[in-house]
């Protein structure tokens, strides 16, 4: 573990293994942290926040360090990508692009570090000046998932450091390696010891002690709804600031005037890219009833042609899911959908490509789905698509919004007015029109309803790691009646 600028084992000496999802074999081991290790990391972060060099750095100096880190990540993107593929099984082509792109988060927030400005609001009291400043919250706990560990860490770490905080990172126990590797680059970028720390291990043993530690003032978590609810409740006991990016059951809506040459690949990308292991997956495909048959035929044909195999192979389209537990959960969801009467028109089974010992699920499409079925309401987090139909805009909106989540939505139409109407009416933090699954460091990302709290990315993200302070400056004066508030 990386604590206070040193590489340390767990105090109890225990370790745990990480398996390669393609081979199913263990390939790395990491310290299994407990509460005492977490305390050591938080104490290091607290000392760096209050006593070390970091609080004396100017905002411009923090920004320069983040820009240096951005450059180091870009230089080492291929190595980081290979480590991520071994850990989470995603396609090397996707992870290479993702690792190169994530360098932009550190450059963007490096540039923003000295752009956080206070203000002097005009007030209604003579002889008094008010200044509003924005200050870092302190020690932040950053808890990341297994599907895109480094990218989703960048969404948290870059704005947290730009704002002047210190952090303790707890990566998923399934995908620890790339975060540990990143610490070599953090050190090389010149970020002082203790500013960034990593504890490795399991949720109840390391994650919850981190969330509940009294010196932690902010928690940022990406993961499932159940864990998010538990974290939010635990953080609330100490009134910690919280950012939660949780699950989704996003509708991808295709109208009868859509360009099908774009919409069909868009639907495939929305659910089968990353083997469906993304919170923004377009897992509910809403088709206008007039184009259902043609669209479904084209969709099945394109999905059927996808090649399952080694994620390191550039010819592979569908990689394994990240864990054995997730593999089994997906198959259970598929059987539930069959039991509810949904019609499986593609896939629906486990798969074992030649040479693999890992966790594959065939691209799966269910037709004839009703929105009250579990397959349409519950997040599967795998390559499983539910197809529903609608008659008009009103019904499309009703179906799309009739779910507990509100993370994202897609709309495919050539009618600009319809696109604007739908974007206003859909209950989602992100709405894509004639595209899907795009994100950027420049624009806010966050969920509605049970999809989370707060925002990541864009200018909005850095404010999640700052707290305002109101400073009143008055001329010396005699107050007529000190018992009455001015």
From TrEMBL:
<comment type="similarity">
    <text>Belongs to the aldehyde dehydrogenase family.</text>
</comment>
<dbReference type="InterPro" id="IPR016161">
    <property type="entry name" value="Ald_DH/histidinol_DH"/>
</dbReference>
<dbReference type="InterPro" id="IPR015590">
    <property type="entry name" value="Aldehyde_DH_dom"/>
</dbReference>
<dbReference type="InterPro" id="IPR016163">
    <property type="entry name" value="Ald_DH_C"/>
</dbReference>
<dbReference type="InterPro" id="IPR029510">
    <property type="entry name" value="Ald_DH_CS_GLU"/>
</dbReference>
<dbReference type="GO" id="GO:0004029">
    <property type="term" value="F:aldehyde dehydrogenase (NAD+) activity"/>
</dbReference>
<feature type="domain" description="Aldehyde dehydrogenase">
    <location>
        <begin position="7"/>
        <end position="471"/>
    </location>
</feature>
<dbReference type="Pfam" id="PF00171">
    <property type="entry name" value="Aldedh"/>
</dbReference>
<protein>
    <submittedName>
        <fullName>Aldehyde dehydrogenase</fullName>
        <ecNumber>1.2.1.3</ecNumber>
    </submittedName>
</protein>
<dbReference type="InterPro" id="IPR016162">
    <property type="entry name" value="Ald_DH_N"/>
</dbReference>
<feature type="active site">
    <location>
        <position position="245"/>
    </location>
</feature>
<dbReference type="InterPro" id="IPR016160">
    <property type="entry name" value="Ald_DH_CS_CYS"/>
</dbReference>
<keyword id="KW-0560">Oxidoreductase</keyword>
